[in-house]
């Protein structure tokens, strides 16, 4: 089995609303459970705990990515009674984990370098090659993207809320 504590370390690197990290973990043999930590609620800005549960989902996603990176399969169960999420970590289809490392290196590597900042954007232009990559990504039906590269023009032509 993988080092379950190490998998939790990747889970806690997830983003969370206002960086509250509103989660608790319990490790049992091949299962990791994630529980909401309501002592970290933000009742004024998140009265329905929507952001709290989105934060739990982010921790869950990191946990799954880390488990798959190590060659394991993660199956998820949710309890509506206590709001917990349980993740069973098992070897994928009877294959030795070392022989089944997932090809999710980009996602896995992004976990440890993710950062957020509340500082004002410095204004450095995004390289054209990066803009082209973003523009080429597939979109869901009914979704569109507007790249604002000229703030002055945008102020005159568009109202963005």
Entry keywords:
161 residues; alpha+beta
Question: Can you describe this structure?
Answer:
This protein has 161 residues and is α+β, with helices and mostly antiparallel strands. Helix content is 33%, strand content 16%. A four-stranded antiparallel sheet has the order 1-2-4-3, covered by helices on one side. Strand 3 and strand 4 form a beta hairpin. The termini are far apart.
Write the layout of secondary structure elements.
Elements: H1 4-11, E1 23-28, E2 31-36, H2 50-69, E3 72-78, E4 85-91, H3 105-113, H4 128-136, H5 151-157
Antiparallel strand pairs: 1-2, 2-4, 3-4
Helix pairs in contact: 1-2, 2-3
Describe the structure in brief.
This protein has helices at 4-11, 50-69, 105-113, 128-136, 151-157, and strands spanning 23-28, 31-36, 72-78, 85-91.
Overall pLDDT, averaged?
87
Count of individual helical segments: 5
Span between termini: 48 Å
**Structural class of the helix and strand makeup?**
alpha+beta
Approximately how much beta-strand content do the residues carry? Answer: 15-25%
Query: Percent of residues in helical segments?
Result: 25-40%
Instruction: Encode the helix/strand succession as letters.
Output: HEEHEEHHH
Weakly predicted, low-confidence segments: none
Shape designation: globular
